[in-house]
Amino acid sequence: MHMDYGQHFMGFGGGFMWFFWPILIALVIWAVIVLAKSDRGSGTPTSREILDQRYANGEIDSDTYEQMKRKLE
């Protein structure tokens, strides 16, 4: 019985690829999610944060604040 080492190696490589690609894809998806979450915390404030800041600065009164807050929700 003669064993073809080329086919044996391909069998191992094929099995490894079934293991490698799902892990690689999962890592890419994980990295995209982590980067997307980290971008939310930096940069442009939300509408609610702007409204809170305007109220804290005295730019709008409490009635206007409450009315605008209800619209945002």
Features:
single chain; mainly alpha; rod-shaped
Number of β-strand runs: 0
Count of alpha and pi helical runs = 3
Order of helices and strands: HHH
Roughly what is the average pLDDT, rounded to an integer? 80
Residue runs with pLDDT of under 50 for 5 or more positions:
none
Number of domains: 2
Helix content class:
over 70%
Kindly, what is the distance between the CA atoms of the first and last residues, rounded to a whole number of angstroms? 75 Å
Q: What is the gyration radius calculated from CA atoms? A: 28 Å
User: Structural class of the helix and strand makeup?
Assistant: mainly alpha
Strand percent estimate: under 5%
The oligomeric state is: single chain
Cα shape: rod-shaped
Describe the protein's architecture and organization.
The protein is an all-alpha fold and 73 residues long. The protein folds into two domains: 1-30; 43-73, no CATH class. It is 78% helix and 0% strand. The protein contains three helices and no strands. The chain is rod-shaped. It starts with a helix and ends with a helix.
Summed up, what is this model?
The chain has three helices and no strands.
Task: Give the secondary structure arrangement, pairings included.
Layout: H1 5-40, H2 47-56, H3 62-72
